[in-house]
Design brief:
By secondary structure, this protein is α/β, with parallel strands linked by helices. Helix content is 39%, strand content 21%. A 5-stranded parallel sheet has the order 7-6-8-11-12, with helices on both faces. Strands 1-2 form a two-stranded antiparallel sheet.
């Protein structure tokens, strides 16, 4: 490709986050930025983290420890933080009425939540999950459609110091089960159902078939979304709205070490058994914030 599709104007460049970062560190051009980021990786990511304003409960002692080799690198060694605190609580405190997320459904219905509302819903779910015995290190499967409650679930699990596994809403029971089995999930969060291209998808039925193969799953928390009749196991199943309705709206995020696992994200499995990639609070948060 010899032609650029778009070249930013000088004004756009001057107002960009990258240009501000370069000016702060005396970097003349993009080529120099790339060189410094690769020649001194620890300097670069320490500088990026400071630029992003990440909130640490306890400061890290060292940006990078790769003494055991690059495959076992440890980032922001000794630091304590929590991804959910940074993504929800920090913004809710500074700009409570700012829009945090917008959910648009297939029927055209739109729901917009402020950071204050998101924090309240995350906190109520934290309380509910804690009451169900979910704590630091426990694995929670999240098998939900693309709705705002999906974000609520991820943030609540992270805030507790537990580990979530996101599972694609279109998967069959066998695919859901393989992921729950591999991470030995203690709890599954799912929905009664949802609509895809005008067709009703019986999500709870799929979840039940998957959980039947997963003895580690003790409880299933169900979001009422489609309001369709669903199969129900009263010894195991619980409605999300009933568990969260009376819960207090406050909950302090658990400070965790930067290398504490946050999420296990599985590959599709199209070329074999799905592989689980473990992401941690510190590295994942800084990289996602840098990209966004």
């Amino acid at each position: 490709m010899s032609d650029f599709v778009w070249t930013p104007s000088a004004d756009v460049v001057a107002r960009s986050n990258v240009k501000r970062f370069m000016d702060r560190h005396g970097i003349a051009d993009y080529g120099e930025l790339v060189r410094r980021s690769t020649e001194d990786v620890a300097w670069f990511w320490g500088a990026v983290e400071r630029e992003l304003g990440i909130h640490w409960f306890a400061p890290y002692e060292r940006v990078l420890d790769d003494s055991e080799g690059p495959a076992w690198a440890k980032w922001f060694v000794g630091g304590k933080l929590n991804l959910a605190h940074q993504c929800v609580d920090v913004h809710a405190a500074a700009n409570p009425e700012r829009t945090a997320l917008i959910g648009e459904h297939e029927d055209g219905t739109v729901r917009a939540w402020s950071y204050a509302k998101l924090r309240e819903r995350v906190n109520r779910l934290c309380r509910a999950l804690q009451g169900l015995g979910v704590g630091p290190g426990d694995r929670v499967g999240i098998f939900l459609p693309m709705v705002p409650e999906n974000v609520t679930a991820m943030m609540a699990v992270a805030k507790l110091g537990a580990i979530f596994t996101p599972i694609f809403s279109g998967f069959a029971a066998s695919a859901v089960a393989s992921r729950l089995q591999d991470c030995e999930a203690k709890l599954l969060i799912t929905a009664d159902g949802f609509s895809r291209k005008g067709r009703a998808v019986p999500m709870k039925k799929t979840a039940d078939e998957a959980v039947a193969r997963c003895p580690s799953v003790e409880r299933v928390l169900v979001l009422k979304h489609s309001h369709a009749p669903v199969p129900w196991n009263p010894k195991r199943d619980l409605w999300w709205h009933e568990q969260t309705r009376q819960q207090p709206a406050d909950f302090d995020a658990l400070p965790v070490d930067s290398e504490t696992p946050l999420m296990i994200a599985y590959t599709s499995g199209t070329t074999g058994k799905p592989k689980g990639a473990v992401h941690v609070h510190g590295g994942f948060l800084v990289k996602i914030a840098q990209e966004a």
